[in-house]
């Protein structure tokens, strides 16, 4: 997709009615918070006699803009300022740019990019892609199978309905799947992952990633897979849950399973067959606390809280 500057050059003077510049509003306040959403974002003044319905691309200003598309597959960029951008119908591409912006995709499969600043992005209906960028952002996919990426900053991500993929990115993020079968990853930082309803996958550790921060994993309702990293606290909640451990867990980092149910839950241990050609799993009970330590070749992997009912039959080995 061409950037807006490239698009201007490609269009030429003969078709400049397809590219309209938004009208700047009054001067910005010093408040960096994003503007509150409105029930209806009014169509901005574009050019006299031309409505947003006639345009394919809308370009904002360095001020605080209110920009809206309608019907077509629109490309709308707020540039600088505290902007409010609504895509409405169509497969829209919305970019907030610099500043704390509010982006609303509406119907259709939309691409929303917050840019720098504390942005609020809402996909609404359709399979949308939301990217917060730098800053402390709020992303909500709502309906459809959405892809949400927080980027840098302390972000809050909510998938909504549909099987969503959510990634917090850098820093300390809060990620909730919502309904259906979602895939949640915190990225780097101390993250809170909440699967909510559905059979979800919660990723506290990713291969090749330096895993030093403690995450909080809560599967919620459904049969969930929780991939436990160093120092993580993992709770499956209701359902038949699987806790995946591995030889990436380092001794002394205190990963814990908080609510293992031996009647429904299971533990999977992934291992490197080169490092562990003949892997042996054993359990060690702490009589004073009732917690059970799970070990691979003598190396502690995780502590199962109140795990006296855990037996080796609930644990399976899997070569990575």
From TrEMBL:
What are this entry's molecular-function GO terms? Answer: calcium ion binding
Which domain of life does the UniProt lineage start with? Bacteria
The opening ranks of the lineage are:
Bacteria, Pseudomonadati, Pseudomonadota, Alphaproteobacteria, Rhodobacterales
UniProt name for this protein: Hemolysin expression modulating protein
Tell me which GO cellular component terms the UniProt record holds. Answer: extracellular region
Q: Which UniProt keywords apply?
A: Secreted
Q: Where is this region: Disordered?
A: 23-43, 114-180
Q: Where is the composition biased (Low complexity)?
A: 155-169
User: Looking at the keywords, is Translocase present?
Assistant: no
The protein's matches in Pfam families, at most eight in alphabetical order, are given as: HemolysinCabind (PF00353)
SUPFAM superfamilies, sorted: beta-Roll
**Subcellular location(s) of the protein:** Secreted
What residue spans carry the Acidic residues bias annotation?
A: 28-43
